[in-house]
């Protein structure tokens, strides 16, 4: 594995019976990069991510994440990454503070470290007034920002975000991306899936999946030049039309 890469995939494939959900994709992600994994719903983004985070075994191909093999070292991968799923991952029937404490324990942090992290996180998110409130009572935008922060509790090398801004308002989306930039500036590699093509502009590089294949991979600027269009949505439309 190249020392500058934290993810390397070669011909990574996932089949369900006769259906090929992910078709021999190859790419790498560099340290500290914000890497956008784009495509329409059903393009294979989430299936590919599940293979990379060690919860779904590939049918063929190979991949390493944080230096660990997806086939043989899935548990090591899980310890070195953060993950925010498409569906809200925290517990609605626990308070903000209880969720942070619970996940801090799962990540193996000491009680002292959990207390320090909890205080810092609640202050950064401006949740002091609701820290003892059930998470289920919070607006979706607050839940999503809290979920992202919790995925970073153990200072992972890479954080995987699956459609993190789905369903939230434009202001919250912008705030969420500010949090992503902050995490990247502090050395965390961010691997983010989205079907919002305007969010591609915020990434260092993007890959675009169509029907299980990566059909384009480069910086947003280079892709727009390559396809002679003004925005990433038009790049996607050209690829989708074949």
TrEMBL record:
In terms of Gene3D superfamilies, this protein maps to: P-loop containing nucleotide triphosphate hydrolases
Please report the stretch or stretches of sequence annotated as the ABC transporter domain. Answer: 7-236
A Pfam family it matches: ABC_tran
The family database entries (InterPro entries) matched by this protein are listed as:
AAA+_ATPase, ABC_transporter-like_ATP-bd, P-loop_NTPase
Which PROSITE patterns would you find in this protein's record?
Answer: ABC_TRANSPORTER_2
What keywords is this UniProt entry annotated with? Answer: ATP-binding, Nucleotide-binding
The membrane spanning regions, by residue number, are: none
Q: Which GO terms describe its molecular function?
A: ATP binding
What's the name of the protein?
ABC transporter ATP-binding protein
Please name the source species: Psychroserpens luteus
Instruction: Write the lineage as a comma-separated list.
Output: Bacteria, Pseudomonadati, Bacteroidota, Flavobacteriia, Flavobacteriales
């Amino acid at each position: 594995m190249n020392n500058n890469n934290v993810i390397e995939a070669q011909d990574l494939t996932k089949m369900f019976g006769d259906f090929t959900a992910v078709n021999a994709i190859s790419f790498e992600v560099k340290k500290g990069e914000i890497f956008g994994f784009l495509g329409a719903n059903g393009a294979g983004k989430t299936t590919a991510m599940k293979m990379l985070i060690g919860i779904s075994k590939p049918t063929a191909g190979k991949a390493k994440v944080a230096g660990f093999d997806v086939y043989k070292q899935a548990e090591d991968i899980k310890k070195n990454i953060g993950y925010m799923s498409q569906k809200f991952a925290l517990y609605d029937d626990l308070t903000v503070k209880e969720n942070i404490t619970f996940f801090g324990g799962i990540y193996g942090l000491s009680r002292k470290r959990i207390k320090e992290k909890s205080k810092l996180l609640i202050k950064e998110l401006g949740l002091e007034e609701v820290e003892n409130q059930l998470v289920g009572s919070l607006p979706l935008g607050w839940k999503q920002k809290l979920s992202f922060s919790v995925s970073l509790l153990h200072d992972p090398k890479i954080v995987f975000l699956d459609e993190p801004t789905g369903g939230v308002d434009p202001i919250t989306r912008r705030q969420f991306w500010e949090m992503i930039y902050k995490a990247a500036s502090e050395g965390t590699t961010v691997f983010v899936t989205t079907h919002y093509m305007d969010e591609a502009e915020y990434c260092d590089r993007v890959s675009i999946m169509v029907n299980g294949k990566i059909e384009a991979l480069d910086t947003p600027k280079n892709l727009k030049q390559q396809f002679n269009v003004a925005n990433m949505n038009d790049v996607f439309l050209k690829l989708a039309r074949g």
